[in-house]
Amino acid sequence: MYHEAFNMSENESSSLLETHPNSFVHLHLHTQYSLLDGAIRLKDLIPAAKEMGVPAIAQTDHGNMFGAIDFYKRCKSAGIKPILGSEIYFTPGSRFDRKSARRSARVSNQDEEESNHHIHHLILLAKNNIGYQNLCKLLSRAYLEGFYYKPRADIELLKEYSEGLICTTACLKGEVGYNFFTGQDEKAVRAIEKLQEVFGYEDFYLEIQENGIPEQADVNRKVLEYAKEKKVKVVATNDAHYMTPEDATAQEVLLCIQTGKSFADENRMKMTSQEFYYKSPEKMREQFHYAPEACDATLEIADKCNVELNWTDEQGNQIYHLPDYPIDTGETEDDYFRRMCKEGLEERFRGPHFTKLVSEDNWKAELEPKYWERLKYEVDMIIEMGFPGYFLIVADFIQWSKNNGIPVGPGRGSGAGSLAAYAMTITNIDPLPYNLLFERFINPERISMPDFDVDFCQAGRQRVIEYVTEKYGEEKVGQIITFGKLQAKAVVKDVSRVFDLSFAEANMLSKLIPDELGINLEKAIEMEPKIQELIDTDSKIRQIFTISRRLEGLYRHAGIHAAGVIITSKPLVEYCPLFKGAKGEKVVQFDKDFSEEIGLVKFDFLGLKTLTVIDYASKFVQRDHVKDFDIEEIDYEDKKVYDFIGDGNTIGVFQLESSGMIDLCKRIMPDSIDDITAINALYRPGPMGSGMHDQFVEIKHGRQKEHYAFEELRPLLKDTYGIIVYQEQVMNIARVLAGYTLGQADILRKAMGKKKIALIEEHREIFLKGAAERGFDVEKAGELYQLMASFAEYGFNKSHAVAYSYISFQTAFLKYYYPACFFAGLLSTELSNTDKVTVYINDAKNHGVEVLPPDVNESLWLFNVIGQNIRFGMGAIKNVGENAVEELVREREENGPFKGFIDFCTRVSLKIVNNRVIESLIKVGAFDECETKLNRKTMLENAELIVTYAKKLQHEKELGQVSLFDMGGSSSDDDGSNDPMKMLDIQITNDFDDREKLAYEAQLMGIYVSGHPLDRYSDIMGKLASMDIAAARDLTGGDKREMMLAGLISEKRDIMTKKGDRMCFAQLEDLSGKIECIVFPKVFAEFGELLSGDEPVLMSGNVNLAEEPRKFFPTNVKLLKDQAEDRVTSIRINVKMEELTETKLDRFKQVLLSYRGSVPAHVIFSANDGRARLPLGEDFLVNPTPQMAARVNELFNGNSVQFIVDGRVEDPAMQ
User: Which DSSP category does 1129 fall into?
Assistant: First the structure.
């Protein structure tokens, strides 16, 4: 229960006017929940109000109640009465109209029809709980029915929901104020009469403000005159938007961000004065000295407003609004739940997981009873706590998903520790072998709703939500709102734009802010000296950062929670207001924490990409290898798969693919799910920073001894070699040593994990006392408690780690046994991420899988498996839509492969497969395999002609005049009769060269597929660079690392700084991937001409490892070829004797003479009986350029040339 500072009814004798005669209550106020408008933070407002001694405050955010619960709780805690309200958007016409009012030259001449399309402001305040509910309903319908630019209510909604509401006429944008200030006094009077009729004399107030706007003074005069004449109540407000006058400029910038305007724009929306701040009661009374009754009216209204929100029962337990699960057997929910769990566990015992266990001699006598005992304990607890319905609802939509081909994860979070969940197939993890704790999921000593997080295949997640919506009713299912904040980077970017910095300059400023999770501007300035330097030297940058710091943390926009779905017993609007998502989704206006606070139950429907990978790969396995393959039934003790992981083959393997994870896998060499679970738990900053992972490795491999403070801990810690890795271990230690119940132990675990010092110290005494009572050494127990406290901070949820380790193993299994299927699934889910695609293609090659270019006869929308290789998916090609791919796949499946380009054009529907599609397919080589006569350039130059010809044939076929087959529609047909090439007079031209082909691939697919412009430089780049770009991106640590990278410059953007200096942003690309480069003015001035992208470069510089994604800051740039000439001391050319014909020998000699230089060359001849080295002597000294190497490599089919840099020879035998 919350502290109740006020609990008054309207009839109580002591009024606020009597107890606070000189006070004032702000009834028109905008907090951070008035997105990009209100700049009042609740954390600042409530303490200020308390300090001023005000008895109440109202929150009236624009068109919403996003912050109502947040506001209510904070006010109650501070002993201030919260008044819940909203400044709604009101249209005099119908909320269903979709018209905008025209801007007449003379506003006063607008006719009634035009006036009806205006959007006005109106303040509504809830008097009581009925009023609160009515306001929720009104705002919900304004969003769901009346949204047009803004969520609009009309007079019909006001009449329907007026009970329990007080109405005030708002600002100059209110219908009354607007018509008075535009000289339309009669309309203003009609508006007053209309509203007074709805809300009655007692609950309707005309609003006056003192804000320094000349028009406002005129409106105030008219309002007071009318009120005096008609005896209508008047209330004073200030339309507060910010806390202090000093915040006025920042709030105007906020409006500029909202409207996309520049601060220098004279026509931008602005407040026109600095009076819209949170003023003290004294200030307000002083400003309204001429109308004291208007200030008194604020206290009168505050007296009337007595909303009391209560979310707990008489025992103080949370009330949950969960629907009853529909049961058609006549059983109670509890009985049905108990039966489902019993039958489910029996079914599990018959499954593959238990085959080995059931055959054990001690199954019936020892093992099986443990399962029934654990299940009974869980079921009894779940029923006692009132949660069967929750389990049944989750089990139902999971089972529906599985029945409808939507993959579901094995478990996620602490729910994987429940045997009841396993029995009901909510999870697929048997918790007993892994010592997973039910109490980590549901704590019987602290009643709170369990929270299953469920992973679905990304592609099917929305279908599951649609199923739940249909089952429980559209009005009872909604998603949860989230609020995007003006975080450090975003606010600097936004404010920079408002002050007319170019996009590139704003980008440069925001990129100086380190990519640290949750970083604020104050910390960013400390961490990055360059920011402080700019602030000190540039007045505009100083202004940007000053305002950015004032706005930082305010809400920028509302969105939808990635996973959370609410299901309720009554329509959602009975509990809270609703918001309309961008795609029409019904969304709860309170975020997940405040939704749960009021008893709404959240179900997390998460989309996990890896499940899509597994599903797609499994379908290929079923198609090409094992028809009844089921990933759930693989052998999780397969030694070959563990060896594969231990060898570091985990690129693309779920959660094990970063360079640090690969290294840890190689060091640990896992041989069980337990080991993979530990790897997942250990590879985090806390354990890594404390050296836990090193200790684990050393003990596992016998180089250190296991240590147990007490022998009783061995069964609890043996799986992690005596190291406390998991939260569950902390809980079990407290149970075994100090006699804690697991519920109490969970409270201890939370206190330690969240560093609640007072609670930790309180439990220390309980722990030591319990240990002493059980005969344990108190001093050693104290040391252990301290160790537990330090490790609990890093401790990982074992239930979650085990569940995700199953997914890790499944992906490793697929990669080991079915690599082509695995990579097809993996690449299909990453089509839009070119960096990852590059890494995965390179890894596929390392595992014997070639990634073939797109092909009209073999490609699908996603990647396709062709034998041991995979064919690029056409969904990755720009301008090629899914409908076009469906059409060409349909045609080839129905009528056979395409015989050539012209055959393709005559057979597919050219209404669907249009010219842009065809041109893109040509450019990426999708016809290269089937087209034997026309090269890419010839096809592209003649595409329009051939398509016109094909359309004519298709039209004639429709008329029944010709058969396509009779026309000989293939350019690859050997029969010369009716040859379309001759008929169309197609002339063969020289094809694009390799560089042009690769450029088209990069342009249309984002990556190079058939080759890479840097292939010829690969050897020298490997010798001169300190690492490749993929390795640089994967480095771990928090320091700045010096390095040398080589590659091609692309996507370069030059900008001019305010000082007039040039700098640039660019991408550096090598064979492994890309990294962003930021070249500051000093470096740009010296090396800018080398950054054209025409030639590969070698860059020295540094990467800040604390930032994600990685950025490279060059300090020196050289052309790669110049460095090759300077540092290559010799070259080695490997030649097989059987390849060395007289013709080749002569061409080899000519190539060497074409690249005369000063570097000695050596030929290594190899044959069946060994190798021989031949120095070529001074007559064949060469210039060691990549071009020379490429010519020689071409001659001898492969990577024959090796550069020896700085005298280093990799093969000493050849010295």
Answer: E
